């Protein structure tokens, strides 16, 4: 069985050498190429014919140019399997890395997990590091919440909140200084948007989703 071919992009020469030595001790892994900065990495990537790429997220200071390099790699080879290496735990950066095409994101402090992550990436298995998984989950929840917030207009949210508080249409009319006809029109739109049959169901659902 041929070893998994690894290409390493890392600006710190000491850390790069240490990681290369560490990986080459694994019987099924071999580092076939290395680079210390973006231009060098792009030049050497295709000739290395690597199966998996380890990409430092910051190749020059804090420019996140490892993400830019990952995008370049994906343009050169669409099925590239890139694992981002970093000491950053910023959720926005993690999400940006996956958007660039990375298949995993591992902290350098968890370097002992890198060999198994390489094997998982090579075998197209899902083995996202818990930190990355949490970031993606939080981003999904944030996007879902944004989507929910845009579902209803401010007026519709106000009406549902008052319904949830137990107010009648007459009381809502007085509270919001709008006519019953307007209230009914709002409620009809709300029921269609939320896929429910009654205003009380809509109010309960809106409360559950924290829409008001």
TrEMBL record:
All residue ranges annotated as the HTH luxR-type domain in the record: 145-210
SMART domains xref list: HTH_LUXR (SM00421), REC (SM00448)
Keywords on record: DNA-binding, Phosphoprotein, Transcription, Transcription regulation
Top-rank lineage group of the source organism: Bacteria
GO terms for MF: DNA binding
Residues with 4-aspartylphosphate modification: 56
Keyword Manganese in annotation: no
Residue ranges occupied by any Response regulatory domain in the UniProt entry: 5-123
Entry protein name: DNA-binding response regulator
InterPro entries in the cross-refs: CheY-like_superfamily, NreC/VraR/RcsB-like_REC, Sig_transdc_resp-reg_C-effctor, Sig_transdc_resp-reg_receiver, Tscrpt_reg_LuxR_C, WalR-like
């Amino acid at each position: 069985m041929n070893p998994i071919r690894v290409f390493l992009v890392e600006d710190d020469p000491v850390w790069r050498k240490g990681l290369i030595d560490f990986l080459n001790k694994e019987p099924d892994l071999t580092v076939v190429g290395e680079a210390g900065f973006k231009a060098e990495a792009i030049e050497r990537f295709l000739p290395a014919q690597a199966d998996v790429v380890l990409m430092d997220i910051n190749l020059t200071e804090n420019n996140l140019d490892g993400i830019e390099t990952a995008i370049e790699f994906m343009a050169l080879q669409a099925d590239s399997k890139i694992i981002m290496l970093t000491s950053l735990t910023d959720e926005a950066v993690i999400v940006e890395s996956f958007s660039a095409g990375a298949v995993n994101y591992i902290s350098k402090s968890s370097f002992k997990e890198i060999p198994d992550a390489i094997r998982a990436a090579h075998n197209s298995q899902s083995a996202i590091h818990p930190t990355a998984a949490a970031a993606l989950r939080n981003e999904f929840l944030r996007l879902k919440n944004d989507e929910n917030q845009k579902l209803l207009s401010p007026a519709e949210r106000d009406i549902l909140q008052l319904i949830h508080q137990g107010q009648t249409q007459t009381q809502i009319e007085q509270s919001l200084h709008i006519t019953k006809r307007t209230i009914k029109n709002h409620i009809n739109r709300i029921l269609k948007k939320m896929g429910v049959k009654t205003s009380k169901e809509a109010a309960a659902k809106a409360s559950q989703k924290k829409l008001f």
